[in-house]
Amino acid sequence: MPRPPRLSPDDVAAALRDLPLWSGGADGIERTLELPSFRAAVEAISVIADAAELMDHHPDMDLRWRKVRVATVSHSEGGLTELDLDLARRVDALYPAS
């Protein structure tokens, strides 16, 4: 199945207006979740991993005690694509605010 093309910087800027918890640009976006405990942060990684597997699109995730940094970019396209935005929306649906 073909992957979606890289988004223009203008398209990314417009999309980020609807993703206020995310920052970045055409080279990738990220969000940091702050969970109530270390165990909850570990669980969040597992939940996000399950969503990513269903999409076959995998973010980078870093765990620091109660914080999980989620970063996404389509390496094969050299920047942000609609897949990355879809993943960001799924993360926001799972963790609306932190």
What labels would you give this structure?
98 residues, Gyrase A, domain 2, alpha+beta
Walk me through what this model shows.
With 98 residues, the protein is an alpha+beta fold. 41% of the residues lie in helices and 21% in strands. It is built from three helices and four strands. It has a four-stranded antiparallel sheet with strand order 1-2-4-3, with helices on one face. A hairpin with a 2-residue loop joins strand 3 and strand 4. The longest helix has 18 residues, at 38-55. The radius of gyration is 13 Å and the shape is globular. The mean pLDDT is 94.
Concise synopsis of the structure shown:
This is Putative pterin-4-alpha-carbinolamine dehydratase. By secondary structure, the protein is α+β, with helices and mostly antiparallel strands.
List the helices and strands and how they pair.
Elements (H helix, E strand, L loop, with lengths): L8 H9 L5 E3 L2 E7 L3 H18 L4 E5 L2 E6 L9 H13 L4
Antiparallel strand pairs: 1-2, 2-4, 3-4
Helix pairs in contact: 2-3
